[in-house]
Amino acid sequence: MMHIQARTEPSSLMKVVSPLLAIALTLFFGSILFSVLGKDPLQALHVLLIAPLADSYNIGEMLVKMGPLLLCGVGLSLCYKANMWNIGAEGQLLAGALGGSAMALYFLNSESAFALPITLLAGIASGMIWAAIPTYLKLKFNSNLILTTIMFNYIALYLLIWAVHGPLRDPEGFGFPESALFSDTTLLPTLFEGSRIHLGILFALISGFIAWFILSKTHLGFQIRVFGADEPAAKYAGFNSKKLSWFVMLFAGALAGLAGVSETTGPIGQLVPNVSPGYGYSAIIVAYLGRLHPLGAIIASVFLAVLYMGGDLAQIEMGIPIAVVGMFQGVLLFFLLACDFFIRNSLTFTNKATN
Amino acid sequence: MDADLIVQILFAAIKTGTPLLFIALGEVICEKSGILNLGQEGMMLMGAVVGFLAAYGTGNAGLGVIAAMAMGAIMSLIFAVLVLQLGANQVATGLALTIFGTGLSAFVGSGVVGQTIQGFQPVMIPLLSDIPLIGRILFSHDILVYLSFVMAFILFFVINKTRMGLTLKAVGENPHAANAIGIKVLRVRYLAIMFGGAMAGISGAYMSLVYTPMWVENMTAGRGWIALALVVFASWRVGRIVIGAYLFGVASIMHLVLQGMGWSISPNLLAMLPYVATVIVMVIISADHFKEKLLAPRSLGKTFDPREMA
């Protein structure tokens, strides 16, 4: 007989196994789906998962996608650890792209060595402002953070579209909704000759380690962890919940803003309407798949970046619509939530005869 | 402004408010049972694309609506199993449903983007549509608008006047007490969630069969999220949801109003209005923390485990 029994302690083994199991189940689901669509499932999985890592060009492109996913995912991990349901990484990323691009256009004819750092700071500050408004509204007026951050995603998107149609549009761009190409002084340097890998991926990795350090080595991080695990206990211990909320939200906003400005000053090189293919939303999955742990987020962001890259390749090589990536992300999160059931419960097998 | 323009604006507000009304009515039933489903946007998009595909394939818009309802209910069933059976976090599961629905709808709809169909035609209600002003505002719409009126009345009656409504509220207020007096808490919640899914499906079908009528990726543009705010705005009351839906309808067509008044503002800036309005409204209603706590279903968003004591 099979029994489901509640565990007295959450299983730390299952916490690690669950994401792996969820990925395996998602791939299984994918194989069935591809078979139904009349595509060779093995070839499809190869294109989705192996091809993105097959040569140095593809690895480079994968790393370009990993940067923003990781920057946003690290920030969200900290937010969710502190029970701040920030769904606004997408808007904070777009705000960073917009603010950073405005600064980069200001430096269009400048040779100053400070142009790039100031541009990046403008992007970071814009992301922080975009995170600060919903945080303020939550702490001051108790408004629902999930809904306000979502609304701010849409507001940022329309603000950005307005800007590329209006004040930031390239006057010599034949009316296309795009800014002028940034000058070389405000472009992020690439790390390797002939590839598009730029400083952004280093920013992302560093942010992961900084977040890990804060979380596991500082008193502030300790407070965040206690707050997430047991809110009443944290309040009883006298932790300042407002300060913690402000910290995680501004940290996440800064990283998402950096992701946005790194996209426009990195691989894109100008401000365009579609800066992000939904990195800020995918970062929610990065955070969950990485178990809200900054180092886990690094591994999770590799997987999601591979999936994005594989989606591009699958469209080109096999005619599979790119939207399959978004669907797989949803399926992955479903399977993860289902597998997490076994963190709290265990399956026990008992022999009926001995009962 | 002349009377004719006002009539046109109010007519358009009803039309824009209708998808919000459908989805918010479904969500209020779901929340009354104590379940917060953030997957509205995903279910709505799936309703929109499946409704469109069914209507496109059969040439029958009515079949499109039925298919959309069924699809919405199926989507919500995934959510229900995870949340009710496996005790998954409602917020995370709802987000997963939205991400899944957004991706899946774009995937299955990729072949029909930009195709058009013959949607529902306006049906003038005899006598009522002849009433000056009101007739044109309320009674010269398509059949789905009338269905939304009827649904609002039925739900108001069911929630406030019937035993079924009482059971629903009991489950949402205190599932342990409801369980103790023999109410099947999980069954009530399954039904409430799936009702919400079906309503989200119709809401999506309204977008793709009447409002545009065509299918475009992400065409619901956050209406599923605005509906969630609308339920809070309405303090979980059907009457206020109706008013709120049409107020948001006015906010969404504000650019037409302002153009009518001779203003010229960038359409991209005006497109922000419904979202800005939602934020402002949420700030105003939530500021009174005590009142909101009092009105919300008490077990909203909490996992119910019958093994635990209340």
Characterization of the model:
By secondary structure, chain A is mainly alpha-helical. Chain A has a domain at 68-291. Chain A contains 14 helices and 2 strands. Chain A has helices at residues 12-36, 41-50, 56-81, 89-106, 115-141, 145-165, 199-217, 219-229, 231-236, 241-268, 279-289, 294-318, 324-339, 341-344, and strands spanning 2-6, 345-349. Chain A has a two-stranded antiparallel sheet. In chain A, helix 1 (12-36) packs across helix 2 (41-50) and helix 4 crosses helix 10. The longest helix of chain A is centred in the last third of the chain and has 28 residues, at 241-268. The N and C termini of chain A lie close together (10 Å). The mean pLDDT of chain A is 91. Chain B has one domain (3-112, 142-295): ABC transporter involved in vitamin B12 uptake, BtuC, CATH 1.10.3470. Chain B is built from 15 helices and no strands. Chain B has helices spanning 3-32, 40-58, 61-85, 90-108, 134-138, 143-161, 163-173, 175-180, 185-211, 223-233, 238-252, 254-260, 267-270, 273-286, 289-295. In chain B, helix 1 (3-32) packs antiparallel against helix 9 (185-211) and helix 1 (3-32) crosses helix 10. The longest helix of chain B is centred in the first third of the chain and has 30 residues, at 3-32. Chain B is globular and about 60 Å long. Chain A binds chain B through residues 6, 85, 87, 137, 141-144, 146-148, 150-152, 154-155, 158-159, 161-162, 165-166, 281, 284-285, 288, 321, 323-331, 333-334, 337-338, 340-341, 344, and chain B through 38, 42, 78, 82, 86-89, 91-93, 95-104, 106-107, 110, 217, 221-222, 225, 228-229, 232, 266, 268-269, 271-272, 275-276, 278-279, 282-283, 286-287, 289, 292, 307.
